Amino acid sequence: MTGDAHTPDRRLPSHPFDPDDDKLREECGVYGVFGAPDAASFVALGLHALQHRGQEAAGVAAHEGEPNGFNIVRRLGHVRDSFTTAEVIKALPGRLALGHVRYSTAGAKGATAIRDVQPLYAEFAQGGFAIAHNGNIVNADALRAELIERGSIFQSSSDTECIVHLMARSIQRSAAERMKDALRRVEGAYSIIAMTRSKMIGVRDPLGVRPLVLGRAGDAWILSSESCALDIVGAEFVRDVAPGEMVIISDDGVESQFPFQPSKPRFCVFEYVYFSRPDSVIGGLSVYETRRRIGVELAREAPVEADLICPVPDSGTPAAIGYSQESGVPYAMGIIRNQYVGRTFIEPSEQIRNMGVRLKLNVNRAVVAGKRVVLVDDSVVRGTTSRKIKEMVLDAGAAEVHLRIASPPTTWPCFYGVDTPDKEKLLAATMSEEEMRDHLGVDSLRFVSLDGLYRACGVAEGRDDRAPQFCDACFSGDYPVAPSDRIAQGRLKLAAE
Amino acid sequence: MTGDAHTPDRRLPSHPFDPDDDKLREECGVYGVFGAPDAASFVALGLHALQHRGQEAAGVAAHEGEPNGFNIVRRLGHVRDSFTTAEVIKALPGRLALGHVRYSTAGAKGATAIRDVQPLYAEFAQGGFAIAHNGNIVNADALRAELIERGSIFQSSSDTECIVHLMARSIQRSAAERMKDALRRVEGAYSIIAMTRSKMIGVRDPLGVRPLVLGRAGDAWILSSESCALDIVGAEFVRDVAPGEMVIISDDGVESQFPFQPSKPRFCVFEYVYFSRPDSVIGGLSVYETRRRIGVELAREAPVEADLICPVPDSGTPAAIGYSQESGVPYAMGIIRNQYVGRTFIEPSEQIRNMGVRLKLNVNRAVVAGKRVVLVDDSVVRGTTSRKIKEMVLDAGAAEVHLRIASPPTTWPCFYGVDTPDKEKLLAATMSEEEMRDHLGVDSLRFVSLDGLYRACGVAEGRDDRAPQFCDACFSGDYPVAPSDRIAQGRLKLAAE
Amino acid sequence: MTGDAHTPDRRLPSHPFDPDDDKLREECGVYGVFGAPDAASFVALGLHALQHRGQEAAGVAAHEGEPNGFNIVRRLGHVRDSFTTAEVIKALPGRLALGHVRYSTAGAKGATAIRDVQPLYAEFAQGGFAIAHNGNIVNADALRAELIERGSIFQSSSDTECIVHLMARSIQRSAAERMKDALRRVEGAYSIIAMTRSKMIGVRDPLGVRPLVLGRAGDAWILSSESCALDIVGAEFVRDVAPGEMVIISDDGVESQFPFQPSKPRFCVFEYVYFSRPDSVIGGLSVYETRRRIGVELAREAPVEADLICPVPDSGTPAAIGYSQESGVPYAMGIIRNQYVGRTFIEPSEQIRNMGVRLKLNVNRAVVAGKRVVLVDDSVVRGTTSRKIKEMVLDAGAAEVHLRIASPPTTWPCFYGVDTPDKEKLLAATMSEEEMRDHLGVDSLRFVSLDGLYRACGVAEGRDDRAPQFCDACFSGDYPVAPSDRIAQGRLKLAAE
Amino acid sequence: MTGDAHTPDRRLPSHPFDPDDDKLREECGVYGVFGAPDAASFVALGLHALQHRGQEAAGVAAHEGEPNGFNIVRRLGHVRDSFTTAEVIKALPGRLALGHVRYSTAGAKGATAIRDVQPLYAEFAQGGFAIAHNGNIVNADALRAELIERGSIFQSSSDTECIVHLMARSIQRSAAERMKDALRRVEGAYSIIAMTRSKMIGVRDPLGVRPLVLGRAGDAWILSSESCALDIVGAEFVRDVAPGEMVIISDDGVESQFPFQPSKPRFCVFEYVYFSRPDSVIGGLSVYETRRRIGVELAREAPVEADLICPVPDSGTPAAIGYSQESGVPYAMGIIRNQYVGRTFIEPSEQIRNMGVRLKLNVNRAVVAGKRVVLVDDSVVRGTTSRKIKEMVLDAGAAEVHLRIASPPTTWPCFYGVDTPDKEKLLAATMSEEEMRDHLGVDSLRFVSLDGLYRACGVAEGRDDRAPQFCDACFSGDYPVAPSDRIAQGRLKLAAE
């Protein structure tokens, strides 16, 4: 309906073959620091460690005490480009700070408007308030329409702004109580960090779909999407914030509340498959080790005669190591990733394009030539990447190419804060495993089973179909929270129907 | 209380002697175009012609029809730097557009936050709405506190946002009716241009303190702060919008309404003295000719034996011409202004500073040496410039320096959209004419009388003290609208008290 | 032949009607400071005052003592944008500095390559050497071909680089002696400032075509193209450097030498007409006063019945004042110049263009309507501006428009450091005065005579045709130095032939 | 002596612990394309693939045919940031283009001046000439002094400029013959690509110290430092350019000449150890496979009881794989590299620093805790990184840390185009293996032997000490070309002495 083009960018054509385009994308990471001098410099480091959760934009809010109060800087682009100067950190003084990295789910697609970059800020009668959110509110459209009708003026297209307007209209006095009022109206997945001038609040939705951890660095408390962002500042991991828990951090310490109806947790299993960093520990499990174990399960379920196990870098690496270890077939770097990444590059001329430009990945020709190669990747979304990589490996002279996928077939979109193509664009939603094998042109194709995935995640007995231990809707269509806006728009027909 | 530092700039030290620092500053200009293809390119040109009314920032909103609706670009800096590329105009398609140049009165002082740059935009239940405002709302603080208490979330520190929130809560359906509801709660001076997807609205406050004119360019209608911005696009001047009038422009033409209680008009007399451009015509008077006539009045009231009449460029030029013509003393360019202006320059070393750097003005030494010189300037605010210029002219060898001011002594601050120093900083508020003469170190000093000024403005009988024909509060302390926020804060004691 | 596009700029379409495009352009200004701490900050100020002599680029070289030696910064754009930060001045420490502003004559036309921006720098066996040049070498092509043949490698397309290579091959040891060797091979016009680590050298060609003055600021010596750039730093004017003089400034003071065959001086008369700033004094004459006197001569030679004398701002202003004073017809600002200049602006749509956009100049409609107007301008080059302005004044309702030009008809190109159109583009080279009047569509057109111009320049008896006191080749075709490259290329047929 | 600060950057403090700082650095890569439309876009892609050979700056020269000839763009920073827009490629039209990425060896250290960025360009009497160079000229200082004495003016501090000035003074007519004249005066290591308007020349020094390969893409010929940069554009590998060979590419095809005295080749063995990309094939050997075999040799020479083999990413990875395969100890990603690299980051506060910030590397705590870990790295230079990583691994709870290095101890600086610390900064030059083990604080430390390295490079019988097959001066002090400038300066005492 509207767009506030503060910085109307010339859009560069992205390259036709970018292997990273064919992934599900986590769209946010959040990070908060309470009680450290120059809290914003901690936050900048933490966001850098969470950069894989959102590369389009980043923002930091800090409170410098009265009378100046809150300062907020929001920028498009990477943390290393936007938040690395002394100037920007000097513009964000104070002991309390929180930040956000963002891809883009709800909100204007395509060109991220700077106004949609979080943290959001609002001034209530009781004082200022900043908030950052990882997840997605599935009834945001309905809430927005209701609020506008009553005179609220929205400044962004972010679903998070609903929470702020609901809080503004609450008759409670404290920010924490106003937030509870607001969240009781909200459906969906969320891990939120918020702050007033004297308190920092962390909260996870009742199912705990998205991660949130608590850390400690000297006297300071830290909230972070993942534990790897505690390591970067040398902080100590304390514990996961529990599903449905609200922690309220003040100079008196950390207070824990459980404001919602208790539910059985349903943590997102795809965080283990791809989203989280391998050096994070979530829900007591090492992400790296879990991925390696998926490779082990895969080798057991789908062995193959071959000469080499090669990961599709970097996401397939831990599972490939596991597969190699379980199968005894040697592991090799058959595909090399250019470390000087860069998504935008000149559109190549027809001539170059036809020759097949390889900006990010190159096959290690001398390694794969004449070999029977097993490629291990984390997932197949549209299949465009897999097909292209297979061609590159064959062009380099491989004798056979077998594809092993460290997750079950992705057949359903996610509505809980992940950017997924529509169902009809998901390869596995439209083809059987055999059809996919033929479509991709590989000698064999196998996915790990849902039970195998659960076993790698530490559930020895596999998935409990009546009460699944994780959210695996992208594989099963079993949505733990009904995506009500989508259903209202007639844009989704659920599996059950 | 808070600041949203989207672009925290390193502030450069401005030069210690900038003659333009010692001026009252008009803080805004507005411009709207209805019914031209590429309306935004007209608006960019119009804002360039209104640049003297605000140099800190500019913004343009345009409506490109459904489904994309409104686009807005706001930038710090000059129009010629921000709105001159094909890219920015391409980002603002459509037949309706409005724009704003801004100095800064209400809102965060100093570093203009981009969020305070107008036009403001809001989405109401009935559709989008953009607004730009020249003037100042004197009860904005009280309105803001009331609105926040009721759950409105403010995004800027601009007083204009009060109007938007009042409109959002109106139960009227059309934007024009909502605006009337809102403006009836508002006290102060305003010339506003607003637009919906199909209408453009122009309105002046009941006293008509700030200017607003209507023009025509082919089939298109134009609203502008001044007529010089009609000339730049080759448009035709139609008429002034009347004090208290609301014009509603649609594809059906221009509708005129008078929604307020009728009042006797009180147009700002300082627009004639300094703010407006000399090639504008306001209220039927040529600004240039009015200034020349002030010089004529001044020559009659305050003659002096001299060799040369020299303007302080550029604002003193028309009055100096008039003074020369009436007195018969030759006119000469005794002071030269560097056309390559630039406010920011390196802080000179102690050595250079002591020698007296002259970035903007230079005395034409060969012209003034040995002469009795009459300097004509438009006004004296703090007196810092006058004193410095006098020294420069004496250093260059002038025999005598007489100062003639083309306005009465400035003794009161303005609350209607002009940036004025506090009363105690105004030289004329603290000294008699003789004291000022001694303080400035000139051989004689004279101001035009208030009656002389009124005569130059076409009121042959001079000021009617019981019902003054203009707003002249800065000279008289006679405020036509009580500045209620200031009084509530105890920060102003009125003349009458 | 080649271009080193360090910064290949997107060229913005300049506006179709820019009155400043129809001028001859001085192409350089030079400024040097010997013996001041932070000499570069003086130079930045001096170049700002000389900005009218070249707006495309600026450069500053400074020597900070051993071991670091010379630092040089060269930038495209205005001094106020490029040399105003503490950072850039900090990058240029030292007591000796020199600078240059440039338009572009010799060297790549159009997009100024940064490598053509002066000062040039070279390392000789005896040490480093920086040089900046105002003027033009007319045998540069021949010298360049000879030097390349002998193994010199040119880095720029600047004619000044010939001097540097000639110096590199000199067998003299001191920079001053090498420079004399080089300049004896050079033909043309030049005012040069050069420096070694311990000396600053200023030199004017034997005819003294371009200006160069010597000033004093405390203990420091200053060399500058014009005296107005001494005023800006509060320095004292000492004297003109004489035609054919070389001054060598060291810690021992100023040494004067005359290395060339003596000639009768031929200072460029167009410096008085247009190039120099009105507040400069050159050759003992005030530029402002000279221009005013041209107006007086013009009023005597070409009077007319009229109501108003209006300058074409800003260059016609002093002559218009003189004309008004001599004729007794009132002076008025009939045309207003927008002080927020900016050459680049969006290409207006067809619709706007047809209405006649007025970015820089606007007619003061209320002043000229119904009046017989005399427009006074400094010169006519192509005539495009004069024609356009005449139309604007008539559109605004003037009864008659008379044009008076404060210089003789411009009929020949300049080869001494001024950017002139080819002869066939010069209006006066192809038409008689009557034809020009008809072409421009004015009621009358008159130029000041060559003798009148000489009288205004203080030569009471007018021009001595056998030994003219000035270089007036652009009016007379009488070239004091034969432009040998041009003749060799067959691109010029001299008047005498 | 001098610096031409075109873009004087504020230098950001780099982070105190950057593992990439403790590496030898290859300083250049070169790439040329003959006979493809838009050759510059190929070159941009090729340079992106060679980015690991130089990250400070890049340049591209292209010839667009007469009359415009050569265009050159040189920029600081990464290829992906500087050469990815359509605009920059449009500024470089033509069928011939060559490019260069640069770290910095000879030339101004620290802030790379843009004038030192290659390709260099010169205009000879016979036409334009561009050149790019990987390597280092060891008698450049002597040559430069001689050339300046004879009147050559140097524009850069690059050693490559000596070649250009020697060519300018050659009496030969063709560029290839001039180049032979010049190279016969030059001592050192070089792989050069040069071009005239119609020819492209590639040449390797007689010992072939630096790599250079020839490829084919359709009708176009390509010269590249490494074969991985052929793959990126889909080009075919043809062959290595031979040591001492000059290839001259024209529309008639590729002509091969051997202008130098024949020598036994001495290719740089460190290209296999670290400099080249693992997916390149040089001298018939796969770089990846060679590194893996070094790991195998290392496992044989220096086995250890352990639980895990962990690479120091990314340079230690192939050797770690080989070590694991030979030893049977499982391979694991015990250290994770943040893919969002960024060398510059805010200087952390004292508090954060003390906690140990980990911008680039993080230990995978869950993987190494309680384990006996073998870390495999490619080399030890100063040892700062190894020490820091060992601490991180122990902090994460490892039981033992053993360090295995996939190259012999680095004890001598390189003078052939590699940035090496002075000898006394090289850890292995000052300590025995035991002392190093204690200094680094590891449980054991072992380097591969020189013979082991040669075996991995395919020399089954190991190094031939009388006629070594590679240049291994950094390990042996056996310099195949005497570094004459260094010896003249008394800054190097050779091993033999």
The overall number of domains of chain A is: 2
Radius of gyration of chain A: 23 Å
- The rough form of chain A would be described as globular
- The total strand number of chain A stands at 26
The CATH class of the largest domain in chain A is identified as Alpha Beta
Mean pLDDT of chain A: 89
Number of helices of chain A: 18
* Adjacency order of strands in the biggest sheet of chain A: 5-4-6-3-12-11-13
CATH fold assignment of the largest domain in chain A: Glutamine Phosphoribosylpyrophosphate, subunit 1, domain 1
What is the first-to-last residue Cα distance of chain A?
Answer: 32 Å
Pathway (chains A, B, C, D): Purine metabolism; IMP biosynthesis via de novo pathway; N(1)-(5-phospho-D-ribosyl)glycinamide from 5-phospho-alpha-D-ribose 1-diphosphate: step 1/2
Binding site for [4Fe-4S] cluster (chains A, B, C, D): 268, 414, 471, 474
Catalytic activity (chains A, B, C, D): 5-phospho-beta-D-ribosylamine + L-glutamate + diphosphate = 5-phospho-alpha-D-ribose 1-diphosphate + L-glutamine + H2O
Binding site for Mg(2+) (chains A, B, C, D): 315, 377-378
Question: Any key phrases for this structure?
Answer:
homotetramer; 497 residues; alpha+beta; Glutamine Phosphoribosylpyrophosphate, subunit 1, domain 1; Rossmann fold; 2 domains; seven-stranded antiparallel β-sheet; six-stranded antiparallel β-sheet; 18 helices; disordered N terminus
